[in-house]
Amino acid sequence: MNKTSLFAVSALLLLSACDSGPAPIPLNEAPLAGATIGGDFLLTDQDGKKRSFKEFDGKYRIVYFGYTNCPDICTPDMQNLMAGLKSFEKKYPALAAKIQPIFITVDPARDTSAVLKQFVGAFHPRAIGLTGTDSEIAEAAKKFAIYSSRVDGSSPENYLMSHSQTPYLMGPKGEPLAIMPADVPNTDANEGAPDLVEAELAKWVR
After folding, report:
1. Rounded to an integer, what distance in angstroms lies between the CA atom of residue 80 and that of residue 182?
2. Angstrom distances, CA of residue 139 to CA of 38, 84, 162, 166
3. Is the pTM of this model over 0.85?
4. I want to staple 123 with a disulfide (CB 3.0 to 4.6 A). Which of 18, 40, 82, 191 is the partner?
């Protein structure tokens, strides 16, 4: 190969490297890599079927603990998270197919399978809503470092649940990768805007 041809090949390789952008960050360098968050559970989905966390191995998982009667946080968070996922789906359908969104209630007394079916169905067709007994939910929440407690209201039925606002992105082995963007209440900015959610998914899902 003469010098001219060698120069042309080298330039082409360099151009290809530039076009491909920066190398993706290894998953073992993700913000939550190595954290003891997550673990298997057995809960009941919106169709009354028992589901384990382990059955989704091989998929990335957006995991969010909340409840359907949450007045100011859970609904906007789910709207942002699922709108970001839908936007990601339009651009990267093959990658988005690897993501399973999961909503786990911290209020199993009111959030039956039927209630969850209507709730998660409003945000994304593939979203799964999970409920269970008090002890099953408490065990799952503990594994994901989620705090929740009941705040009594004006009547036994009228109560709120104080809980952690922590949407996780879990990796294909069930490992914690990152905390997804979430809006901070009582601020003007939308820290959990769908474009921020999309950008976070693009950073880690491959």
Report:
1. 8
2. 11, 29, 17, 17
3. yes
4. 82
